[in-house]
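Supplementary Methods. Inverse-folding protocol.

Structures were first reduced to a discrete structure-token string of length 835. This string, shown here, constituted the complete conditioning input.
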């Protein structure tokens, strides 16, 4: 044999080996993927049987699609197994298999050998060829094509579309996993993985200082899981906001290659996607972790907890630090990791007795900071103007705009889209993506979707995007320099949501969002002087400015009675703690000795403000639990229930008036009317649109209500109903919790004076009671807000005599008699006084 021929033969052998190896690998890979799909379908069948109607439509569609994919894959395999063929036996091992197949086929009635079958096929191929006819004077005649001249072709079969679909899905899944792995390895924290795990093994408490974009939120829990920390428990990662907990859990489940709710899931107020005994990594709000500590002070289900975004100093996170500090002392094997995105982490280290700091650099690029030359009076208009300045003059890259709340975000979104339509072809296409806490989960995920080529995405966010969320592609940031804070005035017992300047630390966090993928620009809608002279260095801890009734009840329920000497990282004032204890006593949650009562323990089981909890528990006495469950769910959404398009404002106002005809029960009964009609119309989105009601807000009410109904069973609250026609029972139950939020009409016939603090207040224009021609003498309200005036929202009329019935320990009969005997004016103008 010549060298050339020998080389050619060798090359052919190698090619054959490669081909065989590839075919073997593909067959094994297909079998593995099919096995995984079978297991997933089996698990989904179990979950569908367990949850039943609780599954969402999206989950049902996913389950059905997976079942159909499995059926088609197995059907295709069954077809392949029954295809006829032939084998040419060789001299080695294939001879035995060929003889075996031959023997089996004889039993089926075949009596031809493999060689005969092969020869027969070759003859058929030869016969199918038509002999080329001789051309005699062919050019003299018109060519005619006859059937006899046609060549016979033998089909090898059309590609199986189901098989092609399965292969494409497998390929996409493999590519997605590969991409996820590449992204994980590209994060700055990956280079410190081994050092981080070693430090965690050596120290019960570790303070991780990690800049924005380092990957701490998504990777640290996974590292702990991969290192074996979940063998005897799960890893919990707390988040200050529910949006962050839900979105991060979804991302991590994709990185882990599992379905959300299985090995990785989330738990937030009134929503949860976890599987007991299966979930190993759980993202949850800090408030939910507090609730778990109340029922299980040792957190026996957890082997490690990551307190994420501790620098935000939320109330629940501060309380968790205090409680987990005690837990670490009694559970030596437990691990606590506290993460902070700012350099003030030394405060945390000192609090935990000199816990080591573990620094991880971020991945930021140079950022140019631009300040407005003069203060902007209307920052919303200024922000929208800046959006289009960037869009029309700057290069590619998405824009992130910070606002203070959902109302501003929705207004800005409408303004931006309207301006974009007016500009037409002068400006490139844009995608407006809002994100805030009350937005549905599916809408929140839009901010993470890749921006299509030639488009620019404009993300409108509250301060949730400072550190809790990482959005790729942002190159420009617009900072209004403001944020909303809940501030509680202990002297006036008034909780208000106010817009205040953000801190310098927050402003720098916002600017950092523009430098994750390349050089960025931050446009600040305030002056450089204001940044250095008017903004505080750091945000004031929430525990120093909030209503402490809920936190104090939580600590009391856990058996912590000496609250003045409790080890807070930043202790509240003695005045604030004392005022809170007085409120809890007035609500009947603690006795004169400061011990938690049975009523207080029942209230602590409810994820509600203590006042709302009392209203719900009192509904049992008045036989209106069902109505109060609805009302408690509705009042938190009162500000977002109605919408009024600019071109249909009159129609929207008329629709709103229809629900509050005669306003006999005020806003509270109007809320119940809305809910009843929503349910009677089978939760119809079309009905909501016709009545100018926000469908998403009512769906949130529906979810909260479902959860509260289940909790009523937990606290042994029977499901009684009075019907909404019995206003008195419902309003008495509500006043049982809000007896401090009572006001009586002033002599001017328009304003009211709160009985607890003598504060002059006005009914908010959005209330149906603001349109009444005759003012009621006494009202109860859900909340008080402060803008140009002190406004009360979600208002209902009451009788003064009720106060001694629902809160005799707070409102004394003699005082109520004095109030009712005082003569009041019938008001001025068109507004009179009701009886």
């Amino acid at each position: 044999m010549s060298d050339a021929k020998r080389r050619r033969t060798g090359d052919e052998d190698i090619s054959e080996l490669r081909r065989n190896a590839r075919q073997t690998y593909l067959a094994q890979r297909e079998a593995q993927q099919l096995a995984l799909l079978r297991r997933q379908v089996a698990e989904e069948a179990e979950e569908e049987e367990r949850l039943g109607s609780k599954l969402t439509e999206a989950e049902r569609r996913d389950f059905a699609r997976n079942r159909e994919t499995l059926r088609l894959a197995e059907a295709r395999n069954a077809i392949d197994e029954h295809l006829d063929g032939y084998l040419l036996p060789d001299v080695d091992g294939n001879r035995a298999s060929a003889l075996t197949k031959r023997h089996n086929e004889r039993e089926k009635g075949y009596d031809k050998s493999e060689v005969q079958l092969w020869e027969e096929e070759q003859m058929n191929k030869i016969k199918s060829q038509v002999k080329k006819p001789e051309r005699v004077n062919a050019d003299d005649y018109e060519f005619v094509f006859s059937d006899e001249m046609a060549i016979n072709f033998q089909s090898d079969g059309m590609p199986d579309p189901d098989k092609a679909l399965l292969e494409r899905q497998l390929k996409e899944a493999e590519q997605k996993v590969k991409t996820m792995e590449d992204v994980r390895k590209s994060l700055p924290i990956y280079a410190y993985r081994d050092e981080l795990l070693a430090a965690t093994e050596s120290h019960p408490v570790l303070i991780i200082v990690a800049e924005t974009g380092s990957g701490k939120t998504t990777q640290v829990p996974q590292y702990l899981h991969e290192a074996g920390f979940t063998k005897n428990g799960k890893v919990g990662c707390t988040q200050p906001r529910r949006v962050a907990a839900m979105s991060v859990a979804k991302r991590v489940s994709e990185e882990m290659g599992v379905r959300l709710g299985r090995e990785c899931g989330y738990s937030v107020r009134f929503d949860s996607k976890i599987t007991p005994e299966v979930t190993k990594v759980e993202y949850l709000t800090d408030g939910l972790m507090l609730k778990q500590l109340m029922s299980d002070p040792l957190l026996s289900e957890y082997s490690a907890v990551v307190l994420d975004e501790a620098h935000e100093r939320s109330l629940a996170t501060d309380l968790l630090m205090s409680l987990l500090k005690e837990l670490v002392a009694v559970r030596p094997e437990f691990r606590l990791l506290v993460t902070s995105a700012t350099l003030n982490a030394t405060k945390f280290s000192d609090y935990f007795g000199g816990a080591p700091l573990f620094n991880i650099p971020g991945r930021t690029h140079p950022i140019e900071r631009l300040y407005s030359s003069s203060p902007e009076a209307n920052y919303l208009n200024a922000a929208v103007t800046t959006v289009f300045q960037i869009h029309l003059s700057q290069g590619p890259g998405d824009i992130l705009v910070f606002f203070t709340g959902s109302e501003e975000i929705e207004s800005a979104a409408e303004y931006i889209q309207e301006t974009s339509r007016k500009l037409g072809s002068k400006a490139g296409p844009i995608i407006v993506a809002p994100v805030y806490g009350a937005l549905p989960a599916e809408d929140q995920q839009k901010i993470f979707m890749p921006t299509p080529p030639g488009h620019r995405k404009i993300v409108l966010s509250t301060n949730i995007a400072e550190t809790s969320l990482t959005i790729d592609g942002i190159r420009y940031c617009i900072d209004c320099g403001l944020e909303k804070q809940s501030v509680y005035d202990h002297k006036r017992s008034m909780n208000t949501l106010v817009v205040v300047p953000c801190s310098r630390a927050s402003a720098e966090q916002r600017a950092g969002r523009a430098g994750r993928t390349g050089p960025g620009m931050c446009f600040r809608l305030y002056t450089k002087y204001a940044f250095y002279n008017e903004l505080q260095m750091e945000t004031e801890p929430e525990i120093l400015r909030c209503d402490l009734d809920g936190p104090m009840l939580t600590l009391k329920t856990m058996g912590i009675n000496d609250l003045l000497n409790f080890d807070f990282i930043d202790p509240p004032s003695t005045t604030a703690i004392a005022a809170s204890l007085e409120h809890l006593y007035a609500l009947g949650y603690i006795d004169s000795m400061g011990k938690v009562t049975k009523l207080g323990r029942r209230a602590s089981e409810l994820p509600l403000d203590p006042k709302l909890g009392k209203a719900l528990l009192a509904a049992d006495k008045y036989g209106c639990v069902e109505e109060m469950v609805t009302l408690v769910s509705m009042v938190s959404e009162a500000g977002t229930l109605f919408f009024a398009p600019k071109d249909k404002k009159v129609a929207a106002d008329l629709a709103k008036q229809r629900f509050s005809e005669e306003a006999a029960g005020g806003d509270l009964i109007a809320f119940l009317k809305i809910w009843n009609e929503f349910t009677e119309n089978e939760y119809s989105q079309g009905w909501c649109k016709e009545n100018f009601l926000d469908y998403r807000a009512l769906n949130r009410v529906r979810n909260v209500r479902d959860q509260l109904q289940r909790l009523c069973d937990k606290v042994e609250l029977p499901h009684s109903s009075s019907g909404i026609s019995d206003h008195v029972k419902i309003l008495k139950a509500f006043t049982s919790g809000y007896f401090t939020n009572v006001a009586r009409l002033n002599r001017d016939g328009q304003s009211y004076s709160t009985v607890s603090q003598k504060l002059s207040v006005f009914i908010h224009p959005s209330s149906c009671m603001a349109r009444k021609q005759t003012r009621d003498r006494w009202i109860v309200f859900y909340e008080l807000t402060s803008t140009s005036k002190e406004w009360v929202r979600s208002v209902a009329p009451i009788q003064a005599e009720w106060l001694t019935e629902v809160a005799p320990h707070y409102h004394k009969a003699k005082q109520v008699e004095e109030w009712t005997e005082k003569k009041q004016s019938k008001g001025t103008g068109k507004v009179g006084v009701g009886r």
